[in-house]
Design a protein that fits this description.
By secondary structure, the chain is an alpha/beta fold. It is built from 7 helices and 12 strands. Helix 6 links the parallel strand 10 and strand 11. Helix 1 crosses helix 7. Bound molecules: NADP nicotinamide-adenine-dinucleotide phosphate. The site of NADP nicotinamide-adenine-dinucleotide phosphate (NAP) has 24 residues, from strand 2, helix 2 and helix 3. Keywords: Cobalamin biosynthesis, Oxidoreductase. InterPro entries: Precorrin-6x_reduct. Pathway: Cofactor biosynthesis; adenosylcobalamin biosynthesis.
Length: 246
C-alpha cells in the first residue's frame, strides 16, 4: 500500500513512524521551514502545483490513500487534497488534532480570522505575544503596539515596527512561557487554535498570569471529508477501511 502523508506537523511525523514497515509512505513538506524536523522514511519537499499537480502526482506514484496531516490552518493544501481525491477516487483521510477548549479560569476572546484578531488587539492590550507564525505577520504590521514574535525562522517584512523576535521551535514548557510573559510584560497573547500539547503551555502561563488570549478559530474543513483525531486513530482507519496490513 502506498500512502502519501501531507505533513509539516508533529502528528504527521508520528504517523510516518507508526506506518514504518507496514506501508510505503511518502511524507510531503511544503518547504517553508529552512531546517525542518524530518519524519522517518521517504520525504518530498515543495508544492505539487495546485490540484492538477497533485492529481498527476497521485497517478504517477500510484498512491492508494492520502492522509492530510497538515496544520489545521493549512486550508489551501487541505482544499487541494479534497479536490484531488474527488477527481481521482484516491481516498483521503484528514488527521486533525482537536482544537483547544477554554477553561473556567481562562480569559479568551475567539475571533474568526487573523484580520479580526488584529482589529480587536488594540482594545485588549498593548504588549502582545504573537504566536501565529511568521507567515502571518503582515496582518499585524500596521498596528502601533509592541510585539514579541516567536517563529522557527526569522520573519520577513512586512512586520510590526515595534517588535522583538524570538526564534524557537516547540514543544514549549509552562516555565519557559511564564518567563517570557514576565520578562516582556506581556498583556495579551494571540494564538491560532492549533490544538495539541506541544504549544499549549502558553495558554496555561496566560491563565496563571491573568493575561487575555485572542484565539483565532480554525478554517472549516471541506464538506464530507473523513476526519481522525490522532495518529493511532488514523492507523485504525487505514486498517479497517483501506486494508492496511499488519
Ligand atoms: P497552505 O496555505 O494550505 O498551502 C499553500 C500551498 O503550499 C499549497 O497549495 C501547496 O502548494 C503547498 N503546500 C502546503 N502544504 C504542503 C505539503 N505538506 N506538501 C506539499 N506542498 C504543500 O499551507 P501553509 O499554511 O502555508 O502551510 C504550509 C505547511 O506548513 C503545511 O505543510 C503545514 O502543515 C505547515 N504548518 C502550517 C502552519 C500554519 O499555521 N499554517 C503552522 C505549522 C505548520 P501547491 O498548490 O503548489 O501544491
Amino acid at each position: 500500500m502506498r500512502i502519501l502523508v501531507l505533513g509539516g506537523t508533529t502528528d504527521a511525523r508520528a504517523l510516518a513512524g507508526l506506518l514504518q514497515g507496514r506501508a510505503e509512505v511518502v511524507s510531503s513538506l511544503a518547504g517553508r521551514v529552512r531546517n525542518p524536523l524530518l519524519p522517518p522514511g521517504e520525504v518530498r519537499v515543495g508544492g505539487f502545483g495546485g490540484v492538477p499537480g497533485l492529481v498527476e502526482y497521485l497517478r504517477d506514484k500510484a498512491i492508494d490513500v492520502v492522509v492530510d496531516a497538515t496544520h489545521p490552518f493549512a486550508a489551501g493544501m487541505t482544499a487541494n487534497a479534497a479536490a484531488a481525491s474527488a477527481g481521482t477516487g484516491v481516498p483521503l483521510v484528514v488527521l486533525r488534532r482537536p482544537g483547544w477548549t477554554e477553561g473556567p479560569d481562562d480569559d479568551w476572546r475567539r475571533v474568526p480570522s487573523l484580520g479580526a484578531a488584529a482589529a480587536l488587539l488594540p482594545a485588549v492590550g498593548s504588549r502582545v505575544f504573537l504566536t501565529t507564525g511568521r507567515q502571518d505577520l503582515a496582518t499585524f504590521a500596521g498596528l502601533h503596539l509592541w510585539f514579541l514574535v516567536r517563529s522557527v525562522d526569522p520573519p520577513d517584512p512586512p512586520v510590526p515596527r515595534r517588535m522583538h523576535s524570538v526564534l524557537d521551535r516547540g514543544p514549549f514548557s509552562v516555565k519557559g512561557e511564564r518567563a517570557l510573559l514576565q520578562e516582556h510584560a506581556i498583556d495579551v497573547l494571540v494564538t491560532k487554535d492549533s490544538g495539541g500539547s506541544a504549544t499549549a503551555a502558553k495558554l496555561t502561563a496566560a491563565r496563571e498570569a491573568g493575561v487575555p488570549v485572542i484565539v483565532v478559530d480554525r478554517p472549516p474543513l471541506p464538506a464530507g471529508v473523513s476526519v481522525v483525531a490522532d495518529p493511532p486513530a488514523c492507523v485504525a482507519v487505514l486498517e479497517e477501511a483501506y486494508g492496511l496490513g499488519a
